Amino acid sequence: MIASGRSVSDVSQSLGVGENLVYKWRNQQSSSIPAVPASESDLRSENDRLKAALRQAEQERDILKKALNIFSRET
DSSP character for 35? Predict the structure, then answer.
């Protein structure tokens, strides 16, 4: 609400809470936002890493499915 331009006092009255609490929430929100945005190359490398991890997890899943199928037939 504050980010959209409303004042702290207006927000506190609308929510029925004290202004100090609204200031605390605002400070917590602003501190959770990273100060330096990730570069495009960082995002691409992270994307590549996640894709590789997904491929490996899918391969492991497929192996386990095949093993389950084999062991289920023998019993």
Answer: S
